[in-house]
Specification:
This protein is mostly helical and 56 residues long. The chain contains 2 helices and no strands.
Length: 56
């Protein structure tokens, strides 16, 4: 089994682009605002998925 890293990367990019709306919705739901979803965080998460893919 292999992870679809391109699809994961696209999904993470979509979250990064939509983060202001997601964060506002978390605030509205009284969950509270979260730390910014930055491009550095996205790259780090993708690196972690790449490592998991190697382990698989």
């Amino acid at each position: 089994m292999r992870l679809d890293l391109a699809r994961i990367g696209d999904a993470l990019l979509e979250v990064e682009r939509d983060w202001p709306r997601i964060d506002a919705e978390l605030e509205r739901l009284t969950i509270g605002r979260k730390a910014p979803f930055t491009s550095e965080l996205r790259r780090n998460m993708l690196t972690a998925y790449e490592y998991l893919d190697e382990l698989l």
